[in-house]
Amino acid sequence: GHTVAVPASKVANLPHATAVPVKGATKTQSIEEMAGKWSDFSFAPIRESQVSRAMTRRYFADLDAYAESDIVIVGAGSCGLSAAYCLAKARPDLKIAIVEAGVAPGGGAWLGGQLFSAMVMRKPADAFLRELGVPYEDDGAESNFVVVKHAALFTSTVLSKVLQFPNVKLFNATAVEDLITRTDGNGIRIAGVVTNWTLVSMHHDDQSCMDPNTINAPVIISTTGHDGPFGAFSAKRLVSMGGLPALGGMRGLDMNTAEDAIVKGTREIAPGLIIGGMELSEVDGANRMGPTFGAMALSGVKAAEEALKIFDV
Ligand code: AHZ
Fold it and tell me: Is 260 helix (H, G, I), strand (E, B) or coil?
C-alpha cells in the first residue's frame, strides 16, 4: 500500500482536519490520524435500521417542510442552479425546493459541448464565476469570453454551494408532472407543482394507481431546458391548459442573438410562473446558442431577481 505521511504539526492547520462533530460519535479523527493504522481499523458499529431511519426521517421531514415552499425551481441545469444560488443567498428566510427529474442534477452542464470538457462563458457572465469562486482563463482585454477548464468544475461548484444553503432542498429523481393552478377573474395563476418519482412518471402507461404528490408555492421558476424527452415542460403545459396561445418554438443556432434574448426575456410568463434558460427559447421562438453558457448563468440571476420582485410586492 502507498501512504502519504503528513507531519503531525501541519495536520491541525488543514481545513479538513476540523471534522464536523457528530452527535453521539465516539471519537473525531482526521484522515491523517488513520494513516498507517489500517490493521487496527474498524468503523463505529451500526444497525441497518439506523441507516434506513437516518435517511427516511430526514426525507419525510423535508417532504413535510417543503410541501409549502416559497419558491420551486423546476430543473437543476445550469440556469436553475444559478437561480437557486442567487435566491438562497439573497433570502435565507425563503424556503426553496428544487425538483430535478434526473438522478444527477446539472442538466447539460457537465460538458462544454459535444464531448469536450471546457466551458465557454461570454462576458460579462464572468462576474458569476467570480461570485462562485470558479477559476477561469481569460485571454486578456481582446477576449470577449472566458473559459472554465472543465464544465464539471462550474457545475459541481454551483451545486455544492446551492446544497449547502440551509433553506434549499433538492428533490432529485423527481419529475414535475403538472402545475397547480388557481383561476380567478384575471385568468390562471400558477400556485405549485405536481410531482412524482421520475421512474413512476415514466410508467403511467403500464402501471395503475401511481398518483402524484404536490408542493404548494406562490412562485415557480421553470428551467427545464428546450424541448426534448423532458424539456420545456412548463411552457408546453401552459399551452395545453390555455395559459399561453402557442409555443414560439426554438430557432436555429445564433450565439450572438440567442444569449442576449434569453437573458433579457427571462420573466414571469404567467402569474406565478417564471421561465428561464433554454425553456424560454420554446416560449419566445428564440435562437439556441449551442455551447456557450453565459446566458444560462445570467438568466438564472435574472430569474431570481424576477422572483424576488414578486415577494417584495
Ligand atoms: O432533467 C432536466 C435537466 O436537468 C430537468 N427537467 C426537465 N423536465 C423536468 C421536469 N421535472 C423536473 N418535468 C425536469 N426536472 O431540467 C434540467 C434542464 O437542464 P438543461 O441543462 O437542459 O437546461 P438549461 O436551460 O439550464 O441549460 C441549457 C443548456 C444549453 S442547451 C443549448 C443548445 O441546445 O443550444 N445551449 C445551452 C447552453
Answer: helix
